[in-house]
Amino acid sequence: MIESHGLTKRLGGRTVVTDVSFACAPGTVTGFLGPNGAGKTTTMRMLCGLSAPDAGHAEILGGPYRDLPNPGRRVGILLDASAQHAGRRGQEALTISALTMGADPKRVPELLERVGLEPRAARQRLKAYSLGMRQRLGIANALIGDPEVLILDEPANGLDPEGMRWMRGLLRDFADAGGTVLLSSHLLHEVEAVADQLLIIGQGKIVAAGTREELLAGAGTLVRAADDDAQLGAALSTAGLAARAHPDGGFVVDAEPEQVGRAALAGGVALARLGPSESAGLEQLFFDLTSGAPDAPPAADLQETAR
Amino acid sequence: MSTAAATLPRDRADDPGRDRRPGLLALTRVELRKSHDTRAGFWLLLVCALLVVAVAAITVFAGEDHHHTLRNVFNNCAQILNFLLPVVGILLVTSEWSQRTAQVTFTLVPHRGRVLAAKLLAGAVLALLAFVLTLAVSALFTAINPASFDAWSLGAPLLAQSVVFFVISLLVGTAFGAAFLLSAPAIVSSYVLVIAYAALTSILGLDGLAAWTDQSAFAALTDHSMSAREWARFGTTLLLWLGVPLAVGAYRFLRNEIR
Q1: Cβ neighbours of B105 in A, within 8 Å
Q2: Does residue A114 belong to the interface with chain B, where contact is any CB pair within 8 Å?
Q3: Complex prediction ipTM
Protein backbone atom coordinates (compact mmCIF):
# COMPACT_ATOMS: atom_id res chain seq x y z
CA MET A 1 0.00 0.00 0.00
CA ILE A 2 1.39 3.38 -1.02
CA GLU A 3 -0.40 6.61 -0.18
CA SER A 4 0.56 10.13 -1.08
CA HIS A 5 -1.31 12.96 0.60
CA GLY A 6 -0.78 16.36 -0.96
CA LEU A 7 2.97 15.98 -1.45
CA THR A 8 4.55 19.29 -2.39
CA LYS A 9 8.19 20.12 -3.00
CA ARG A 10 9.90 23.38 -3.78
CA LEU A 11 13.41 23.36 -5.16
CA GLY A 12 15.32 26.56 -5.82
CA GLY A 13 12.24 28.75 -5.48
CA ARG A 14 10.28 26.71 -8.00
CA THR A 15 7.49 24.36 -6.99
CA VAL A 16 8.40 21.12 -8.74
CA VAL A 17 5.70 18.96 -7.17
CA THR A 18 2.34 20.44 -6.24
CA ASP A 19 -0.24 18.76 -4.05
CA VAL A 20 0.27 15.26 -5.42
CA SER A 21 -2.16 12.74 -3.95
CA PHE A 22 -2.76 9.15 -4.95
CA ALA A 23 -2.99 5.65 -3.56
CA CYS A 24 -1.68 2.34 -4.86
CA ALA A 25 -3.49 -0.75 -3.64
CA PRO A 26 -1.99 -4.20 -3.07
CA GLY A 27 -2.37 -6.45 -6.09
CA THR A 28 -2.09 -3.62 -8.58
CA VAL A 29 0.50 -2.03 -10.81
CA THR A 30 0.38 1.75 -11.01
CA GLY A 31 2.06 3.47 -13.93
CA PHE A 32 3.36 6.91 -13.04
CA LEU A 33 3.59 8.78 -16.31
CA GLY A 34 4.89 12.15 -17.28
CA PRO A 35 7.51 13.88 -19.39
CA ASN A 36 11.04 14.27 -18.09
CA GLY A 37 11.14 16.95 -15.44
CA ALA A 38 7.45 16.62 -14.57
CA GLY A 39 8.20 15.68 -10.96
CA LYS A 40 8.07 11.87 -11.01
CA THR A 41 11.47 11.31 -9.47
CA THR A 42 10.99 14.06 -6.87
CA THR A 43 7.69 12.50 -5.84
CA MET A 44 9.26 9.05 -5.56
CA ARG A 45 12.15 10.43 -3.54
CA MET A 46 9.66 11.90 -1.10
CA LEU A 47 7.86 8.54 -0.86
CA CYS A 48 11.13 6.88 0.16
CA GLY A 49 12.13 9.51 2.67
CA LEU A 50 15.16 10.66 0.67
CA SER A 51 13.72 14.10 0.28
CA ALA A 52 11.57 15.97 2.79
CA PRO A 53 8.30 17.34 1.41
CA ASP A 54 7.50 21.04 1.97
CA ALA A 55 3.87 20.07 2.47
CA GLY A 56 1.87 16.87 2.62
CA HIS A 57 3.05 13.45 3.64
CA ALA A 58 3.43 9.95 2.29
CA GLU A 59 2.65 6.61 3.85
CA ILE A 60 3.95 3.22 2.88
CA LEU A 61 2.33 0.17 4.46
CA GLY A 62 0.47 2.44 6.85
CA GLY A 63 3.18 4.81 8.04
CA PRO A 64 6.03 7.07 7.02
CA TYR A 65 8.80 5.23 5.17
CA ARG A 66 11.43 6.10 7.73
CA ASP A 67 9.36 4.51 10.49
CA LEU A 68 9.66 1.08 8.88
CA PRO A 69 12.11 -0.79 11.11
CA ASN A 70 13.78 -2.56 8.22
CA PRO A 71 12.50 -0.89 5.04
CA GLY A 72 14.54 -3.05 2.65
CA ARG A 73 12.54 -6.13 3.67
CA ARG A 74 9.21 -4.44 3.01
CA VAL A 75 9.80 -2.05 0.14
CA GLY A 76 11.99 -2.66 -2.89
CA ILE A 77 13.31 0.55 -4.37
CA LEU A 78 15.06 1.39 -7.62
CA LEU A 79 15.48 5.12 -8.06
CA ASP A 80 18.57 5.26 -10.24
CA ALA A 81 20.27 2.19 -11.63
CA SER A 82 23.49 4.14 -12.14
CA ALA A 83 23.78 4.97 -8.45
CA GLN A 84 26.18 2.11 -7.79
CA HIS A 85 29.93 2.02 -7.21
CA ALA A 86 31.67 1.57 -10.57
CA GLY A 87 34.48 -0.42 -8.96
CA ARG A 88 32.25 -2.95 -7.22
CA ARG A 89 31.27 -6.30 -8.71
CA GLY A 90 27.59 -6.84 -9.48
CA GLN A 91 27.13 -9.71 -7.05
CA GLU A 92 28.99 -7.76 -4.36
CA ALA A 93 26.64 -4.78 -4.71
CA LEU A 94 23.71 -7.12 -4.05
CA THR A 95 25.51 -8.83 -1.16
CA ILE A 96 26.08 -5.45 0.50
CA SER A 97 22.36 -4.69 0.27
CA ALA A 98 21.40 -8.14 1.57
CA LEU A 99 23.74 -7.83 4.56
CA THR A 100 22.49 -4.32 5.34
CA MET A 101 18.89 -5.49 5.63
CA GLY A 102 19.72 -8.81 7.26
CA ALA A 103 18.56 -10.87 4.29
CA ASP A 104 20.29 -14.08 3.35
CA PRO A 105 23.18 -13.27 0.96
CA LYS A 106 22.87 -16.82 -0.39
CA ARG A 107 19.90 -15.56 -2.36
CA VAL A 108 22.17 -13.35 -4.47
CA PRO A 109 23.16 -15.85 -7.20
CA GLU A 110 19.58 -17.04 -7.56
CA LEU A 111 18.34 -13.46 -7.90
CA LEU A 112 21.02 -12.55 -10.42
CA GLU A 113 19.96 -15.49 -12.52
CA ARG A 114 16.34 -14.45 -12.21
CA VAL A 115 16.97 -10.97 -13.58
CA GLY A 116 18.98 -12.48 -16.41
CA LEU A 117 22.52 -11.57 -15.37
CA GLU A 118 24.93 -14.38 -16.23
CA PRO A 119 27.42 -15.51 -13.56
CA ARG A 120 30.18 -14.00 -15.68
CA ALA A 121 28.40 -10.63 -15.73
CA ALA A 122 27.75 -10.87 -12.00
CA ARG A 123 31.49 -11.10 -11.37
CA GLN A 124 32.22 -8.06 -13.51
CA ARG A 125 32.70 -4.62 -12.01
CA LEU A 126 29.81 -2.27 -12.59
CA LYS A 127 31.94 0.03 -14.72
CA ALA A 128 31.61 -2.58 -17.48
CA TYR A 129 27.80 -2.77 -17.22
CA SER A 130 25.50 -1.41 -19.90
CA LEU A 131 22.50 0.63 -18.77
CA GLY A 132 20.27 -2.39 -19.39
CA MET A 133 22.46 -4.57 -17.15
CA ARG A 134 22.42 -1.89 -14.45
CA GLN A 135 18.64 -1.82 -14.61
CA ARG A 136 18.51 -5.58 -14.19
CA LEU A 137 20.90 -5.39 -11.26
CA GLY A 138 18.82 -2.55 -9.80
CA ILE A 139 15.67 -4.66 -10.08
CA ALA A 140 17.46 -7.56 -8.38
CA ASN A 141 18.56 -5.12 -5.68
CA ALA A 142 14.95 -4.04 -5.17
CA LEU A 143 13.80 -7.66 -4.93
CA ILE A 144 16.50 -8.98 -2.62
CA GLY A 145 14.63 -8.21 0.59
CA ASP A 146 11.61 -10.11 -0.71
CA PRO A 147 9.45 -6.98 -0.34
CA GLU A 148 5.71 -6.51 -0.73
CA VAL A 149 5.95 -3.04 -2.28
CA LEU A 150 8.03 -2.05 -5.29
CA ILE A 151 8.87 1.55 -6.19
CA LEU A 152 10.76 1.76 -9.48
CA ASP A 153 11.81 4.95 -11.24
CA GLU A 154 12.14 4.49 -15.01
CA PRO A 155 13.08 0.80 -14.69
CA ALA A 156 12.58 0.16 -18.40
CA ASN A 157 15.11 2.82 -19.36
CA GLY A 158 17.91 1.06 -21.25
CA LEU A 159 16.14 -2.27 -21.54
CA ASP A 160 15.71 -3.77 -24.97
CA PRO A 161 12.18 -4.71 -26.11
CA GLU A 162 12.69 -8.27 -24.92
CA GLY A 163 13.90 -7.01 -21.53
CA MET A 164 10.93 -4.70 -21.31
CA ARG A 165 8.56 -7.58 -21.88
CA TRP A 166 10.38 -9.60 -19.25
CA MET A 167 10.05 -6.75 -16.76
CA ARG A 168 6.36 -6.31 -17.44
CA GLY A 169 5.86 -10.03 -16.74
CA LEU A 170 7.82 -9.75 -13.52
CA LEU A 171 5.79 -6.79 -12.29
CA ARG A 172 2.50 -8.40 -13.30
CA ASP A 173 3.36 -11.57 -11.38
CA PHE A 174 4.54 -9.55 -8.39
CA ALA A 175 1.23 -7.68 -8.25
CA ASP A 176 -0.85 -10.81 -8.89
CA ALA A 177 0.77 -12.35 -5.83
CA GLY A 178 -0.50 -9.47 -3.73
CA GLY A 179 2.33 -7.00 -4.13
CA THR A 180 1.97 -3.27 -4.74
CA VAL A 181 3.90 -1.77 -7.65
CA LEU A 182 4.53 1.86 -8.54
CA LEU A 183 6.66 2.38 -11.62
CA SER A 184 7.37 5.56 -13.47
CA SER A 185 8.06 6.17 -17.12
CA HIS A 186 8.09 9.01 -19.59
CA LEU A 187 7.02 6.62 -22.33
CA LEU A 188 3.39 5.62 -22.41
CA HIS A 189 3.86 2.33 -24.25
CA GLU A 190 6.26 1.08 -21.58
CA VAL A 191 3.61 0.99 -18.89
CA GLU A 192 0.31 1.00 -20.76
CA ALA A 193 0.29 -2.78 -21.16
CA VAL A 194 1.00 -3.65 -17.54
CA ALA A 195 -0.52 -0.87 -15.44
CA ASP A 196 -3.91 -1.35 -13.77
CA GLN A 197 -3.94 2.30 -12.88
CA LEU A 198 -2.36 5.23 -14.66
CA LEU A 199 -1.25 8.36 -12.94
CA ILE A 200 -0.34 11.18 -15.28
CA ILE A 201 1.76 14.03 -13.99
CA GLY A 202 2.61 17.24 -15.82
CA GLN A 203 4.47 20.25 -14.39
CA GLY A 204 4.37 18.78 -10.94
CA LYS A 205 0.62 18.22 -10.82
CA ILE A 206 -1.45 15.08 -11.25
CA VAL A 207 -3.44 15.87 -14.38
CA ALA A 208 -5.26 12.57 -14.76
CA ALA A 209 -5.63 9.36 -12.83
CA GLY A 210 -7.59 6.19 -13.38
CA THR A 211 -7.67 2.97 -15.31
CA ARG A 212 -6.84 2.95 -18.97
CA GLU A 213 -10.52 2.63 -19.83
CA GLU A 214 -11.50 5.48 -17.53
CA LEU A 215 -8.94 7.75 -19.08
CA LEU A 216 -10.03 6.79 -22.56
CA ALA A 217 -13.74 7.26 -21.93
CA GLY A 218 -14.74 10.14 -24.15
CA ALA A 219 -11.44 10.11 -25.95
CA GLY A 220 -13.34 9.98 -29.20
CA THR A 221 -13.45 7.92 -32.36
CA LEU A 222 -10.62 7.40 -34.79
CA VAL A 223 -11.74 7.42 -38.41
CA ARG A 224 -9.77 7.22 -41.64
CA ALA A 225 -10.94 7.48 -45.22
CA ALA A 226 -10.04 4.79 -47.72
CA ASP A 227 -9.14 7.34 -50.41
CA ASP A 228 -9.51 11.00 -49.46
CA ASP A 229 -9.25 12.39 -45.95
CA ALA A 230 -10.27 15.87 -47.14
CA GLN A 231 -13.60 14.56 -48.37
CA LEU A 232 -14.06 12.80 -45.03
CA GLY A 233 -13.28 16.04 -43.20
CA ALA A 234 -15.95 17.82 -45.19
CA ALA A 235 -18.48 15.09 -44.46
CA LEU A 236 -17.76 15.31 -40.74
CA SER A 237 -18.13 19.06 -40.64
CA THR A 238 -21.37 18.85 -42.66
CA ALA A 239 -22.68 16.49 -39.97
CA GLY A 240 -21.61 19.01 -37.35
CA LEU A 241 -19.03 16.75 -35.69
CA ALA A 242 -15.92 18.25 -34.11
CA ALA A 243 -12.88 16.53 -35.61
CA ARG A 244 -9.16 17.09 -35.44
CA ALA A 245 -6.60 15.61 -37.76
CA HIS A 246 -4.60 12.70 -36.41
CA PRO A 247 -0.85 12.85 -37.09
CA ASP A 248 -0.93 9.41 -38.76
CA GLY A 249 -3.79 10.38 -41.04
CA GLY A 250 -7.55 10.41 -40.50
CA PHE A 251 -9.37 12.21 -37.70
CA VAL A 252 -10.15 11.89 -34.05
CA VAL A 253 -13.81 12.80 -33.68
CA ASP A 254 -15.58 13.73 -30.48
CA ALA A 255 -18.48 11.40 -31.13
CA GLU A 256 -19.50 7.77 -31.02
CA PRO A 257 -18.40 5.52 -33.92
CA GLU A 258 -22.00 5.09 -35.04
CA GLN A 259 -22.50 8.85 -35.53
CA VAL A 260 -19.23 9.08 -37.45
CA GLY A 261 -20.22 6.15 -39.66
CA ARG A 262 -23.52 7.78 -40.54
CA ALA A 263 -21.78 11.06 -41.32
CA ALA A 264 -19.40 9.23 -43.66
CA LEU A 265 -22.29 7.43 -45.35
CA ALA A 266 -24.12 10.72 -45.85
CA GLY A 267 -21.01 12.22 -47.40
CA GLY A 268 -20.45 9.15 -49.58
CA VAL A 269 -16.96 8.47 -48.18
CA ALA A 270 -15.56 4.94 -48.05
CA LEU A 271 -13.83 4.24 -44.72
CA ALA A 272 -10.61 2.30 -44.13
CA ARG A 273 -10.94 2.48 -40.39
CA LEU A 274 -13.56 3.32 -37.80
CA GLY A 275 -13.38 2.69 -34.07
CA PRO A 276 -12.66 4.00 -30.58
CA SER A 277 -9.45 5.95 -30.68
CA GLU A 278 -7.77 3.56 -28.18
CA SER A 279 -4.07 3.86 -27.81
CA ALA A 280 -3.74 6.69 -30.29
CA GLY A 281 -6.22 8.48 -28.07
CA LEU A 282 -4.30 7.66 -24.93
CA GLU A 283 -1.12 8.91 -26.48
CA GLN A 284 -2.84 12.11 -27.58
CA LEU A 285 -4.39 12.45 -24.14
CA PHE A 286 -1.02 12.00 -22.46
CA PHE A 287 0.48 14.55 -24.79
CA ASP A 288 -2.31 17.08 -24.29
CA LEU A 289 -2.42 16.67 -20.53
CA THR A 290 1.27 17.06 -19.97
CA SER A 291 2.10 19.78 -22.45
CA GLY A 292 -0.84 22.14 -22.17
CA ALA A 293 0.29 24.56 -19.49
CA PRO A 294 1.88 27.91 -20.36
CA ASP A 295 5.35 27.13 -18.99
CA ALA A 296 5.61 23.95 -21.03
CA PRO A 297 8.81 21.95 -20.76
CA PRO A 298 11.42 22.38 -23.51
CA ALA A 299 10.57 21.06 -26.95
CA ALA A 300 13.10 18.24 -26.64
CA ASP A 301 11.16 16.76 -23.75
CA LEU A 302 7.91 16.92 -25.67
CA GLN A 303 9.47 15.20 -28.62
CA GLU A 304 10.59 12.41 -26.38
CA THR A 305 7.17 12.15 -24.83
CA ALA A 306 5.38 12.04 -28.11
CA ARG A 307 7.64 9.44 -29.61
CA MET B 1 16.20 -15.75 -19.23
CA SER B 2 14.00 -17.18 -16.57
CA THR B 3 10.48 -16.27 -15.69
CA ALA B 4 9.70 -14.00 -12.82
CA ALA B 5 7.34 -16.34 -11.08
CA ALA B 6 9.69 -17.22 -8.27
CA THR B 7 10.52 -13.64 -7.27
CA LEU B 8 7.13 -13.11 -5.82
CA PRO B 9 6.12 -12.27 -2.33
CA ARG B 10 6.05 -15.58 -0.55
CA ASP B 11 4.67 -16.44 2.80
CA ARG B 12 6.82 -14.14 4.86
CA ALA B 13 5.16 -14.37 8.23
CA ASP B 14 7.74 -16.85 9.49
CA ASP B 15 10.74 -14.61 8.87
CA PRO B 16 11.56 -12.74 12.07
CA GLY B 17 14.18 -10.52 10.39
CA ARG B 18 11.62 -8.62 8.37
CA ASP B 19 10.76 -6.11 11.01
CA ARG B 20 14.01 -6.16 12.92
CA ARG B 21 16.00 -2.97 12.66
CA PRO B 22 19.49 -3.66 11.28
CA GLY B 23 21.84 -3.59 14.28
CA LEU B 24 24.76 -1.21 14.57
CA LEU B 25 27.14 -4.17 14.59
CA ALA B 26 25.72 -5.51 11.33
CA LEU B 27 25.93 -2.04 9.77
CA THR B 28 29.53 -1.70 10.93
CA ARG B 29 30.39 -5.04 9.30
CA VAL B 30 28.79 -3.82 6.08
CA GLU B 31 30.83 -0.59 6.21
CA LEU B 32 34.01 -2.62 6.76
CA ARG B 33 33.13 -4.70 3.75
CA LYS B 34 32.52 -1.59 1.65
CA SER B 35 35.99 -0.33 2.57
CA HIS B 36 37.73 -3.07 0.60
CA ASP B 37 35.22 -4.57 -1.86
CA THR B 38 35.83 -1.95 -4.55
CA ARG B 39 38.91 -1.76 -6.70
CA ALA B 40 39.98 1.62 -5.29
CA GLY B 41 39.34 0.61 -1.68
CA PHE B 42 41.21 -2.66 -2.01
CA TRP B 43 44.30 -1.04 -3.53
CA LEU B 44 44.36 1.76 -0.98
CA LEU B 45 44.41 -0.73 1.90
CA LEU B 46 47.00 -2.87 0.14
CA VAL B 47 49.22 0.17 -0.46
CA CYS B 48 48.94 1.04 3.25
CA ALA B 49 50.10 -2.45 4.21
CA LEU B 50 52.94 -2.46 1.65
CA LEU B 51 54.14 0.96 2.80
CA VAL B 52 54.35 -0.26 6.38
CA VAL B 53 56.45 -3.22 5.24
CA ALA B 54 58.66 -0.95 3.10
CA VAL B 55 59.23 1.60 5.86
CA ALA B 56 59.98 -1.12 8.39
CA ALA B 57 62.48 -2.73 6.00
CA ILE B 58 64.20 0.55 5.21
CA THR B 59 64.44 1.45 8.87
CA VAL B 60 66.16 -1.78 9.94
CA PHE B 61 68.41 -2.18 6.91
CA ALA B 62 69.51 1.45 6.55
CA GLY B 63 70.86 3.86 9.08
CA GLU B 64 72.83 3.28 12.21
CA ASP B 65 72.57 0.26 14.43
CA HIS B 66 71.03 2.15 17.38
CA HIS B 67 68.02 3.09 15.20
CA HIS B 68 67.10 -0.54 14.65
CA THR B 69 64.80 -0.64 17.66
CA LEU B 70 61.18 -1.75 17.75
CA ARG B 71 60.25 1.66 19.08
CA ASN B 72 61.90 3.49 16.21
CA VAL B 73 60.63 1.12 13.51
CA PHE B 74 57.10 1.29 14.88
CA ASN B 75 57.19 5.08 15.12
CA ASN B 76 58.37 5.45 11.52
CA CYS B 77 55.62 3.14 10.28
CA ALA B 78 53.01 5.00 12.31
CA GLN B 79 54.08 8.37 10.90
CA ILE B 80 53.86 7.15 7.31
CA LEU B 81 50.43 5.67 7.98
CA ASN B 82 49.38 9.01 9.37
CA PHE B 83 49.40 10.23 5.75
CA LEU B 84 47.23 7.42 4.44
CA LEU B 85 44.82 6.52 7.24
CA PRO B 86 42.96 9.85 6.91
CA VAL B 87 42.42 9.03 3.22
CA VAL B 88 40.97 5.65 4.21
CA GLY B 89 38.65 7.50 6.60
CA ILE B 90 37.69 10.10 4.00
CA LEU B 91 36.81 7.49 1.38
CA LEU B 92 34.60 5.62 3.84
CA VAL B 93 32.26 8.58 3.49
CA THR B 94 32.96 10.31 0.19
CA SER B 95 32.90 7.22 -2.03
CA GLU B 96 29.20 6.92 -1.18
CA TRP B 97 28.66 10.42 -2.53
CA SER B 98 30.94 10.34 -5.56
CA GLN B 99 29.60 6.92 -6.60
CA ARG B 100 26.09 7.86 -5.44
CA THR B 101 25.60 4.67 -3.44
CA ALA B 102 24.37 6.88 -0.58
CA GLN B 103 21.02 6.71 -2.32
CA VAL B 104 20.87 2.94 -1.84
CA THR B 105 22.36 3.08 1.66
CA PHE B 106 19.91 5.69 2.91
CA THR B 107 16.84 4.01 1.45
CA LEU B 108 17.86 0.83 3.29
CA VAL B 109 18.75 2.74 6.48
CA PRO B 110 16.70 5.96 6.53
CA HIS B 111 18.13 6.97 9.91
CA ARG B 112 21.38 8.39 8.62
CA GLY B 113 22.86 8.88 12.06
CA ARG B 114 23.13 5.10 12.32
CA VAL B 115 25.03 4.95 9.04
CA LEU B 116 27.44 7.65 10.22
CA ALA B 117 27.93 5.84 13.54
CA ALA B 118 28.62 2.60 11.66
CA LYS B 119 31.18 4.38 9.47
CA LEU B 120 32.97 5.83 12.51
CA LEU B 121 32.98 2.41 14.18
CA ALA B 122 34.26 0.79 11.00
CA GLY B 123 36.98 3.47 10.89
CA ALA B 124 37.99 2.63 14.46
CA VAL B 125 38.14 -1.09 13.63
CA LEU B 126 40.30 -0.41 10.56
CA ALA B 127 42.59 1.73 12.73
CA LEU B 128 42.93 -1.09 15.25
CA LEU B 129 43.74 -3.54 12.46
CA ALA B 130 46.33 -1.09 11.14
CA PHE B 131 47.81 -0.86 14.63
CA VAL B 132 48.09 -4.64 14.99
CA LEU B 133 49.59 -5.00 11.53
CA THR B 134 52.10 -2.21 12.12
CA LEU B 135 53.16 -3.67 15.45
CA ALA B 136 53.56 -7.16 13.97
CA VAL B 137 55.53 -5.95 10.94
CA SER B 138 57.72 -3.72 13.12
CA ALA B 139 58.48 -6.62 15.47
CA LEU B 140 59.26 -8.92 12.55
CA PHE B 141 61.74 -6.52 10.96
CA THR B 142 63.29 -5.59 14.29
CA ALA B 143 63.88 -9.31 14.86
CA ILE B 144 65.58 -9.63 11.48
CA ASN B 145 68.16 -6.93 12.23
CA PRO B 146 67.91 -5.76 15.84
CA ALA B 147 69.96 -3.01 17.45
CA SER B 148 72.68 -4.35 19.75
CA PHE B 149 71.30 -2.36 22.69
CA ASP B 150 67.73 -1.89 23.91
CA ALA B 151 66.12 -3.15 20.69
CA TRP B 152 62.82 -4.23 22.19
CA SER B 153 61.73 -1.63 24.71
CA LEU B 154 58.29 -0.30 23.92
CA GLY B 155 56.35 0.52 27.06
CA ALA B 156 52.68 -0.15 27.60
CA PRO B 157 51.84 3.59 27.83
CA LEU B 158 53.38 4.23 24.42
CA LEU B 159 51.48 1.29 22.93
CA ALA B 160 48.22 2.56 24.36
CA GLN B 161 48.94 6.07 23.05
CA SER B 162 49.69 4.57 19.65
CA VAL B 163 46.28 2.96 19.53
CA VAL B 164 44.78 6.39 20.16
CA PHE B 165 47.02 7.85 17.45
CA PHE B 166 45.85 5.36 14.81
CA VAL B 167 42.19 5.76 15.69
CA ILE B 168 42.35 9.58 15.74
CA SER B 169 44.26 9.67 12.45
CA LEU B 170 41.54 7.66 10.73
CA LEU B 171 38.57 9.33 12.38
CA VAL B 172 39.84 12.82 11.52
CA GLY B 173 39.72 11.61 7.92
CA THR B 174 36.16 10.32 8.32
CA ALA B 175 35.13 13.65 9.82
CA PHE B 176 36.73 15.59 6.95
CA GLY B 177 35.04 13.24 4.51
CA ALA B 178 31.66 13.96 6.07
CA ALA B 179 32.34 17.70 6.19
CA PHE B 180 33.23 17.93 2.48
CA LEU B 181 31.35 14.92 1.03
CA LEU B 182 33.74 15.08 -1.94
CA SER B 183 36.94 13.04 -2.06
CA ALA B 184 39.40 15.50 -3.59
CA PRO B 185 38.60 18.60 -1.50
CA ALA B 186 38.48 16.49 1.64
CA ILE B 187 41.87 14.86 0.99
CA VAL B 188 43.58 18.09 -0.07
CA SER B 189 42.26 20.09 2.85
CA SER B 190 43.11 17.37 5.35
CA TYR B 191 46.76 17.89 4.31
CA VAL B 192 46.81 21.57 3.43
CA LEU B 193 44.82 22.88 6.38
CA VAL B 194 47.24 21.25 8.83
CA ILE B 195 50.28 22.82 7.17
CA ALA B 196 48.58 26.15 6.52
CA TYR B 197 47.42 26.36 10.11
CA ALA B 198 50.90 25.70 11.46
CA ALA B 199 52.42 28.23 9.06
CA LEU B 200 49.81 30.88 9.78
CA THR B 201 50.07 30.65 13.55
CA SER B 202 53.84 30.85 13.21
CA ILE B 203 53.77 33.90 10.90
CA LEU B 204 51.30 35.68 13.15
CA GLY B 205 53.43 34.81 16.16
CA LEU B 206 50.64 32.86 17.81
CA ASP B 207 52.97 30.29 19.31
CA GLY B 208 50.84 29.87 22.39
CA LEU B 209 47.78 29.06 20.31
CA ALA B 210 49.79 26.76 18.07
CA ALA B 211 51.09 24.74 21.00
CA TRP B 212 47.54 24.03 22.07
CA THR B 213 45.98 23.44 18.68
CA ASP B 214 48.41 22.39 15.94
CA GLN B 215 48.79 18.71 15.16
CA SER B 216 52.19 18.32 16.82
CA ALA B 217 50.14 17.27 19.83
CA PHE B 218 49.06 14.20 17.83
CA ALA B 219 52.60 13.31 16.77
CA ALA B 220 53.70 13.13 20.40
CA LEU B 221 51.41 10.13 20.87
CA THR B 222 53.76 7.70 19.14
CA ASP B 223 56.95 9.44 20.24
CA HIS B 224 57.02 9.31 24.00
CA SER B 225 54.90 8.74 27.06
CA MET B 226 52.89 11.95 27.40
CA SER B 227 52.63 14.22 30.43
CA ALA B 228 49.36 15.52 31.82
CA ARG B 229 50.01 18.88 30.19
CA GLU B 230 50.56 17.18 26.85
CA TRP B 231 47.31 15.29 27.24
CA ALA B 232 45.55 18.60 27.85
CA ARG B 233 47.08 19.97 24.65
CA PHE B 234 45.99 16.79 22.90
CA GLY B 235 42.44 17.43 24.11
CA THR B 236 42.24 20.97 22.75
CA THR B 237 43.86 19.89 19.49
CA LEU B 238 41.36 17.07 19.19
CA LEU B 239 38.51 19.51 19.65
CA LEU B 240 39.70 21.61 16.73
CA TRP B 241 40.73 18.89 14.29
CA LEU B 242 38.18 16.18 15.06
CA GLY B 243 35.41 17.99 16.93
CA VAL B 244 34.83 20.81 14.46
CA PRO B 245 34.91 18.77 11.21
CA LEU B 246 32.82 16.05 12.83
CA ALA B 247 30.18 18.56 13.91
CA VAL B 248 30.05 20.10 10.44
CA GLY B 249 30.26 16.64 8.89
CA ALA B 250 27.44 15.19 10.97
CA TYR B 251 25.21 18.10 10.00
CA ARG B 252 25.95 17.71 6.31
CA PHE B 253 25.80 13.91 6.39
CA LEU B 254 22.36 13.97 7.98
CA ARG B 255 20.93 16.83 5.91
CA ASN B 256 22.54 16.66 2.49
CA GLU B 257 20.01 16.10 -0.28
CA ILE B 258 20.96 12.85 -1.98
CA ARG B 259 21.06 12.97 -5.77
Answers
A1: 100
A2: yes
A3: 0.89
